Amino acid sequence: MRRSGQSPTIVALLAAGLVYSFPAFAENLALTGAEVGAAGSRYIYAGTVLRPSGDSPWRMRLWLDETRYRYDKNGATVRAQERGAEAAAGLGGAGDNSWWAAYLGLRYDHAELSPDDRANDSRGGHLRTKLQAESEQGVGNWRANLGAAYVFGADKYWLRGRMMYPLAPYSLLGVELLRHGGPDYTATQLGGVFSLPLGGRSTALVKGGLRHDENRGSGGYAGIELSLPY
């Protein structure tokens, strides 16, 4: 664990260094989205994946996000708000009916707790290492999409699986199952997803379903994800 006022600068310098080290970029992807759910949960993000021109497997991932959630402590409800920034380098590849990518980099996050919980290791600012992997594979007529991430030192994780079926060219309908959390909370989500084209290769994905937070009960969630090649 590390706390430092210079941590955001370190992430920014790493991001600049990664961009400078790539000679040219080709199939880049902008990603943004938002989700709201039960137990005061919220997640908003904006990021980009940069891929060099040619057949190079290298790529870079830059990310900004904000997460809100609640947990119980000594009979009181603690509201947590965490803002994060990431810069990671990775490898990836694609076949006729599949793709994969894996990233390793730094994440700086700053968490505010109300009321304050001094025993919470997420409190304040931290610079940590993050590992993330994603893949998609054709399974018959279906598309299987898997993702996982882990933040070392924070013991925070994210797991997601999606199965999607094509309804028409570039439109997909399916289901998703997520499990994510850390020392403060654990949530499980099960819902439906619908992906539709926006023009060109851009897509929008809408989702919604049931979210269960351990020790806080169940409720709904809904969100949208945008994928914008450039």
Top-tier CATH class: Mainly Beta
Tell me about the largest β-sheet: 12 strands, antiparallel, barrel
Low-confidence stretches: none
Per DSSP, the total helix count is 1
Proportion of β residues?
over 45%
Task: Return the domain count.
Answer: 1
Please state how the strands of the largest beta sheet are arranged side by side: 1-2-3-4-5-6-7-8-9-10-11-12
CATH architecture: Beta Barrel
Fraction of residues in helices?
under 10%
Q: SSE order in H/E notation?
A: HEEEEEEEEEEEE
Look at the helices and sheets and give the structural class: mainly beta
- Radius of gyration from the alpha-carbon trace, in angstroms: 18 Å
Distance between the termini: 36 Å
Pfam family, one: CBP_BcsS
Keywords: Signal
Signal peptide: 1-26
Protein name: Cellulose biosynthesis protein BcsS
